[in-house]
UniProtKB/TrEMBL annotation:
Keywords tagged on the record: Aminotransferase, Pyridoxal phosphate, Transferase
UniProt KW Zinc keyword: no
Entry-linked InterPro entries: ALAT1/2-like, Aminotransferase_I/II_large, PyrdxlP-dep_Trfase, PyrdxlP-dep_Trfase_major, PyrdxlP-dep_Trfase_small
Organism: Umbra pygmaea (Eastern mudminnow)
EC number: 2.6.1.2
Protein name: alanine transaminase
Lineage of producing organism: Eukaryota, Metazoa, Chordata, Craniata, Vertebrata
One Pfam assignment: Aminotran_1_2
Amino acid sequence: MTENGRFTRDKVLTIDTMNPTIKKVDYAVRGPIVQRAVQIEKELREGVKKPFTEVIKANIGDAHAMGQQPITFFRQVLALCCYPELLNDNMFPEDAKNRARRILQACGGSSIGSYTASQGIDCVRQDVARYIERRDDGVTCNPDNIFLTTGASDGIVTILKLLVCGEGTTRTGVLIPIPQYPLYSAALAELAAVQVNYYLNEEKCWSLDLCELERSLEEARKYCNPKVLCVINPGNPTGQVQSRQCIEDVIRFAAKENLFLMADEVYQDNVYADGCQFHSFKKVLFELGPEYSNTVELVSFHSTSKCYMGECGFRGGYMEVINMDPEVKAQLSKLVSVRLCPPVPGQAILDLVVNPPQPGEPSYNTFIKERTATLSGLAEKAKMTEEILNTAPGIRCNPVQGAMYSFPNISLPEKAIKEAKALGQAPDMIYCMKLLEETGICLVPGSGFGQKEGTYHFRMTILPPRDKLKPFQYASQHVTANWPHIPALTN
């Protein structure tokens, strides 16, 4: 068409012509609250006066951004890999140099700038397999079942892509815990799969209830084909650690109902509460005997982004596939090859996580000291976060047994709830926005993770330094007390 003598054309890609599933994707961890936090940070830099001097980002599990220090050995090896000339420098310990040489020798041209095999560097996958065997008290692990990934998220989405098929009532249903990590709901929306919610029991410290699983599955079979069960342990956003008995029950349930199991275990080193212990799904599966270990399909995921490492930016991780059909496994190999390979620095970091300095090596004592200090600090802050939240009026917080988050319940005035809904907003969204605007504390509303109807929560990480956690009690009390006067609700 022409306009004023000039040729014009309609845009090919518009909001109406784009992929409709993308419009359904929502990722609360980086949603409107966080976007506003970024704006506020800019305003502070420009000299705009606020009731606070900084934004405390307690919304996301980004450990290093909140001051957690990197492990020295990891960064030394990475520096050597990135700039091999440093191998001639005496400032680096010999064990770090040996690790760097081993990784470089496994790379094309002895450079981490080269592509690797799509499944990951062979020696790294072997190290992952040996790590799993040590973790699981000798349960064997085949390196061919290990796929290195771009963080755990990449592996989770890749497996979901393999699983989703069908139309209408035959469309794949995926059972996910509620509250859930929004990666799952976002991925399922993008893949046009059916999200099937099962609710964790808040009254019992966010435990997984078998009766609730059965209810959810039976209901879902009326409108889809549920064939996948996802479990997050330790929990995100709820911070619970599932008992061994619970894991046994889930495995037996998956076997009976012919469900594919996905075990998100990225927080396996983050266990704090007395009486709690991490049990891997794979270990329990094999200890249940051949009836289960030879039949139940399981994929488990781990990452370098959390625990004591906190190396989010390097995007390292792995998944292990158990009892996967060989023909499907070949398709998985094809699918990961499309992305060429995971980031090689992430693969290198992962290798150091699963094969850290050993007793007698020069870096061992420093590594153990740093690792212990980081995990002890997280345990202290987990307890501190729970105590602070439970002394704030209108807030009730379960013990933070593991992971890096609390997910407290907040009591809001009925009038405020009604007015928030009249504005088409979730009440806990307005609560979190008000908290950000008045105190600089950035949280994520519970509505972004899913919650039972009529309940309200927020997710808060335990990562901020101790001195930045302490003001939260006053801040939360202030916002709750002044809720009826929030302009957004009374205008």
